[in-house]
Amino acid sequence: DFQLAEPPILVGNGFDLSRYQLCLEPEPVLGWAGRIAPEKGLEDGAQVAARLGLPLRIWGYEEDRAYAARVAASVPAGTLDWRGFLPTEQLQGELGRCAALLNTPKWNEAFGNVVVEAMACGVPVAAYQRGGPGELVVEGVNGALAPPDDGEALVAATHRALAVQRQGCRAWVEQHCSQQAFSARVETWLQGLAG
Fold this sequence. Notes:
- The protein is an alpha/beta fold and 195 residues long.
- Helix content is 42%, strand content 13%.
- The chain is built from 8 helices and 6 strands, in the order βαβαβαβαβαβααα.
- The protein has a 6-stranded parallel sheet with strand order 3-2-1-4-5-6, sandwiched between helices.
- Strand 1 (30-33), helix 1 and strand 2 form a beta-alpha-beta unit.
């Protein structure tokens, strides 16, 4: 989105992966996490869950109650399972049991911590190819991508994400988003500035 003179150096983020446990036996549920606000696109995740006939567990702070009520009214009763805002230890325990995470922002998010948190638990991600989450999801490796705001394509991406090997999601995070990988990127960046 930015007109830069040259490509940026991306350092991303680093996670303490000892806080996230790989779950190899998911339940037949989808997950969604984030602030409950229109720019996060929960309604798209709700529609995917309804189309697939799978419950959608939702974690996050309810910033806009009227919006949450509209989303709930747009799908059959029982589709949405509101879980609230949880600390990391509880979130990863519950999120790790999801068959896939849906990531549906309506704007360009900077990074997408929850995307990495899900993958650290072995959960593949179906996301819009937009912003940071669109850069984190590697088709067939740790999830699947859909063009922004295309509900039909997101349903198809969710089917593809459900077929991804959960061990591969965790391995990708270990290689790209661990504290060690982050430290190496920062060191390389600083050496480039000094040299």
